[in-house]
Design brief:
The protein is of the alpha/beta class. It contains four helices and nine strands.
Length: 197
């Protein structure tokens, strides 16, 4: 349990499940208490608050609880739960699809008299610099190739970003206004670009 170190300043009372027999339940409780105390005593938590609740997976009984009734903002630790939920519901091979299409007609000179429309389904990696295949230049080059392969040389119209899938519900009502202007407080969209930062 000496490796129980979290870098977050505060984390919510997540439900951790563990299988514990009554024989070693006290020993487990003591180990969790020691690890939690070590966590709370870190210098970077001097002005922070933390809480933890651990339940026995078989009985539902509380194995350990500290500040269990204190409501805390989840901050970045919520990403773990979101990621695990997405993996469970969507599966490990799920891929978001971003569709490029056009309206109107392409004349004999390759001029599109219409619009090119980019429609998203919420891909969080679109234009992300984290992976070679999702970087902005890679994505834009793929789109350019698709447009050229359609026979389009120029556009007499507009390029439209279609993010209507979520009906404009991009920011939860409880978000702090001062967070929204920062990269970590950007709302969600069905058409994210560069991690929506």
């Amino acid at each position: 349990m000496n490796q129980f170190v979290l870098s977050a300043i505060a984390f919510s009372a997540y439900t951790l499940t563990t299988v514990a027999t009554p024989v070693y339940a006290q020993d487990l409780r003591s180990k969790i208490q020691d690890a939690f105390t070590q966590f709370q005593n870190q210098e970077n938590l001097r002005n922070g608050l933390s809480s933890l609740t651990v339940f026995d997976a078989k009985t539902g009984q509380t194995v350990f609880a500290a500040n269990e009734n204190v409501g805390l903002a989840t901050a970045s630790t919520m990403k773990v739960i979101t990621s695990a939920t997405a993996l469970d519901f969507l599966g490990k091979n799920f891929q978001f699809k971003t569709t490029l299409y056009y309206t109107g007609e392409i004349d004999e000179n390759g001029v599109l008299n219409g619009n090119i429309i980019v429609t998203g389904t919420g891909d969080p990696t679109l234009g992300s610099a984290r992976y070679p295949e999702t970087q902005a230049t890679t994505i834009l080059n793929k789109w350019l190739t698709a447009v050229q392969n359609a026979g389009i040389k120029s556009i007499n119209g507009a390029i439209i970003a279609d993010d209507r899938l979520y009906n404009g519900n991009q920011l939860p009502g409880g978000w702090i206004w001062t967070d929204m202007g920062n990269y970590y407080g950007a709302g969600i969209s069905s058409l994210n670009w560069c991690e929506n930062a």
